[in-house]
Amino acid sequence: MQENSTVAVPPRGLYAVDSGPARIRIHHLTELKHKRQRITAVTCYDATFARLVDSAAIDVVLVGDSLGNVIQGQETTLQVTVDHIVYHCAAVARGLQRAHLVADMPFMSYRNVDVALQNAGRMLAQGHAHAVKLEGGLEVVPIVEALVAAGIPVMGHIGLTPQSVHALGGNRVQGRGDRQRKRLLQSAQALQAAGCYALVVEAIPAALAQELSAALTIATIGIGAGAGCDGQILVLYDMLGLNPQFKPKFVKHFAQIGEAIVAALGHYKAEVQAGEFPAPEHTYNDPTPVAAVKRQAHG
């Protein structure tokens, strides 16, 4: 008799991975840093992708204001509103069981303490986020302190800050030169002291990112900042190759899903035009036999 060769399905999803805690909390990220275990993070904007991300045991999911570029087709993130983030965050939350969920604070949503508290509160209460992320260094320290004091966990974001794209003169690498280096180090230390539990570090030289990560007790999550950070984050659509034409230096296409989608749509179109789809197995039929219907009609 042939031995049963059925493969057991991993209990939490599609892939056999070491998923760690049942739910990633803010203290787990610090623990991963001190254990020298790299943190994995991606952006995500809907429940379907969220389920897949959770199946792969990714640690952190960010509902980023990058949805302005990726979902809305905007040139910058500046058009994204609090309502947009809350809506997408709530959708993502429905697809997650394990990952730590962070909501981006969009442009001008934390211009002062009162506004920041109101909007961040919505992210947690209505968007079901576990924390918020905001951009900026020394200038946002009072905002961070107020949010943390109100019980709202805050992830910081320094280096290239997309909401300041016009002030920075475009999407340019930051931290080059001694003056910028010192300011970024000061900002990182100040954000940590203000209560940030982690820090996104974007588009700075790898050596500076490594120096900064070593100087902090909280976790750093890099994007375009080299391998010296405590973790990495990529936009999900970028890493999956859904927009093959968009490939800045820091992005790697781990799959070519965009090409697969175009091919699938081409097959669909061809089968519809040829009358091959829907086939009988895709068609609903009346379970009542035709002969029985005729008998009923004639008494």
Short description:
By secondary structure, this protein is α/β, with parallel strands linked by helices.
Report on the structure:
This protein has 299 residues and is an alpha/beta fold. The protein has 11 helices and 8 strands. The chain has 2 domains: 26-255, Phosphoenolpyruvate-binding domains (TIM Barrel, Alpha-Beta Barrel); 260-297, no CATH class. It has an 8-stranded parallel barrel, surrounded by 6 helices. α2 (47-55) packs across α4 and α5 crosses α6. The longest helix has 18 residues, at 257-274. The model is unreliable at 1-17 (pLDDT under 50).
- Classified in CATH, the superfamily of the largest domain is Phosphoenolpyruvate-binding domains
The total number of structural domains is: 2
In spatial order, strands of the major sheet run 1-2-3-4-5-6-7-8
- Contiguous uncertain segments of 5+ residues: 1-17
- Please tally the β strands and state the result: 8
What is CATH's topology name of the largest domain? Answer: TIM Barrel
Order of helices and strands: HEHEHHEHEHEHEHEEHHH
**SS field, number of helical segments:** 11
State the major sheet: 8 strands, parallel, barrel
Q: State the secondary-structure class.
A: alpha/beta
The CATH architecture of the largest domain would be Alpha-Beta Barrel
CATH class label of the largest domain: Alpha Beta
- CA-based shape: elongated
DSSP strand (E) fraction?
Answer: 5-15%
Rg, alpha carbons? 24 Å
Report, as a whole number of angstroms, the end-to-end distance: 56 Å
Helix content: 25-40%
- In round numbers, the mean pLDDT is 90
